Amino acid sequence: MSNGSMHKVLSSELRPAPASAISAALTLAWRAALKIKHVPFQLFDVVVFPIMSTVMFTYLFGGALAGSTDAYLQYLVPGIVVQTIVFLTVYTGVGLNTDITKGLFDRFRSLPIWQPAPIVGALIGDLMRYALAALVVLAVGLLLGFRPDAGVIGVILAIALMLVFASAVSWLWIIVGMLVRTPESVMTTSFLLLFPMTFISNIFVDPATMPGWLQTVVSLNPVTHLTTAARGLMHGTAVTTDILWVLVAAALVTVVFAPIAMRMYYRER
Amino acid sequence: MLAIETSALQKHFADTKAVNGIDLNVATGSVFGLLGPNGAGKTTTIRMLATLLKPDGGTARVLGHDVVREADKVRAKVSLTGQFASVDEDLTGQENLVMISRLLGFSWPGARARAKELLEAFELEEAAGRQVRAFSGGMRRRLDIAASLVVTPELLFLDEPTTGLDPRSRNQVWDIVRAIAAEGTTVLLTTQYLEEADHLADRLAVIDHGRLIAEGSSRELKRSVGGSTLHVQVADAGRHMDALQLLRGVFGDEVQEDREAARLSVRVAREELAPQALSALAAAGITVNEFALSQPTLDDVFFALTGRAAEEEAQKEEAA
Fold first, then answer.
1. Alpha-carbon Rg of chain B, whole angstroms?
2. Residue A14 included in any domain
3. Domain limits at B71?
4. How open is the CA angle B298-B299-B305, to the nearest 5 degrees?
5. Is residue B300 part of a domain?
């Protein structure tokens, strides 16, 4: 240790007013963006599965399910993007749990900043991650022959709707992230919910051929409505009721789970 | 004004009383050590003082502010370096410090300048651009402390700052703590090592089962144990009994013997008797392999205070 530079650092009178709520949240969103840059593998990790399933489902079942692989791609890709993003929401909980176990949250919480900033910042960062993953999966879809009739605007609107829904679902994983002990158990817990949620939906097949009771389950699943809405937006055949359904579901989930999550976050103290 | 003032401070987890009524007074500008084995309640105490945990009973004031009602004011004046290096492993060293600087209100250029200063002072410039994941334990700990000094705190909490570090890194951290204290920041540190407390702390409190069982300077605590211990090992095992007799002559019947190792040991209340013992041995022609006066350790202090070894406690905790 050089005592001179140590003295210089410690005698610094710089004592700016702590960051505002917005500035703190944005700084922590910047942190989340840096993580995407430094650990791109995590993103790669989550898009591999959707890409694989797109390719497999299209060429294995496409002809049988939709008459041709090309027709099936038009049906499948919007749903696969939905699945990708819904799966990704888990990482909000995983990231939060990692921060808690590593002690980083203690540091944030001992700072004189707006206390929800770490959670809000992480959420903003996660939205970037969701959008990036959606673009990667879409790009592969386009390469395979997916052609959204509503063009760029339709695709952007569809992704925006998915992000609204995803940020709502994220609150659920934030709660799980604070409840369980390790990041791995956040994963395990979440897949118990996410697998049925994405598979018992209309992402892969039209529910028309399913037994009646299953059709009821599928039609109650918010992921089904999100998928229908995303398809509609991307192909220019959007149905307002589905979009509304998604927005209402997202609002409900947020209104219920966000306060619970924040209360738990404060109670940690 | 006192830097820290607690009264009957309590924290319960499920059925364990992690902190069970601690009264603590820490003067400003001092280095205060909380000493105790694993699970004694040191970390819980520090977390309450740093506003991370709400006490279940009693009160705590830090730099004149109540830790519950005026948590914001406390947070603005203190820094915490937790037991596990609380830095983001995915980010580089530089990015970590920029992030904390930004959160504390620095502009982007200001944050970068402050990060650079800190990296220089903590000899981390070379590693600045590397992900913390690749840092050694000592580097990580230095970065962690640097992050606590972005704005010079009035009070710095250090939770087991050297646990798990190699001796060289430990010495570096000790130097840093001394430098911080020399600049007038009050430091509250926890440690399991009496040696560490000895090197750094002006005053110590020994904690066990969430209670404060002794308080004082390191010298006072050692005196409470009854001074140093003299260890003698005779070179020729045949002269073991002669040596025992001689030592008994000097120190009385308190001399203990470990026949297998041909070692003798005795508590020495008056250290000036040790040279007498050595000359008596020399006069009798008894050569020794070892003749050492050792300072008491936390174990000795702990044993004297509780009748149990600190080490056993720690192992029990880990097993549990």
1. 24
2. no
3. 2-223
4. 85
5. no
Contacts of B55 (CB under 8 A, 6+ apart): B9, B10, B11, B19, B48, B67, B68
**At CB < 8 A and 24+ separation, what contacts does B53-58 make?**
B53/A269, B53/B11, B54/A269, B55/B9, B55/B10, B55/B11, B55/B19, B56/B10, B56/B11, B56/B12, B57/B8, B57/B9, B57/B10, B57/B21, B58/B6, B58/B7, B58/B8, B58/B9, B58/B10, B58/B21, B58/B22
Total domains in the fold of chain A:
1
Do residues B80 and B181 share a domain? yes
Residues B219 and B232 in one domain: no
The per-residue pLDDT for range A199-220, each reduced to its tens digit, is 899 998 889 889 999 999 999 9
- Cβ of B82 within 8 Å of Cβ of A106? The answer is yes
Taking 70 as the threshold, does the pLDDT of residue B316 lie above it? no
Angle subtended by helix axes B137-148 and B167-182, to nearest 10 = 10
The full length of chain A comes to: 269
Is position A107 within any domain?
yes
- Using CA atoms in the order B84, B89, B95, B98, what is the torsion angle rounded to 10 degrees? -20
Is residue B25 domain-resident?
Answer: yes
Q: CB-based contact (8 Å) between A107 and chain B?
A: yes
Q: Which of B13, B66, B69, B90 to mutate to test the interface with A (most CBs of A within 10 A)?
A: B90
Model pLDDT, residue A73 = 92
Q: Is residue A2 part of a domain?
A: no
The more confident residue out of B186 and B37 is B186
On the question of pLDDT at B298 being above 80, the answer is: no
To the question of pTM greater than 0.80 for the whole model, the response is yes
> Is B309 within the bounds of a domain?
no
Nearest CA in chain B to A17: B105
pLDDT (average), residues B47-76: 92
Reading the block at residue B309, the tokens are 């070894």
What residue in A sits closest to B54 (Cα-Cα)? Answer: A269
DSSP state of B54: -
Q: Where in the sequence is the domain holding A168, given as residue range(s)?
A: 20-267
B18 with B44: CB under 8 angstroms? yes
The DSSP 8-state label assigned to residue B161 in this structure reads: T
What confidence tier does B282 reach under pLDDT thresholds 50, 70, 90?
confident
The answer to whether residue B313 sits within a structural domain is no
Say how many domains are in chain B: 2
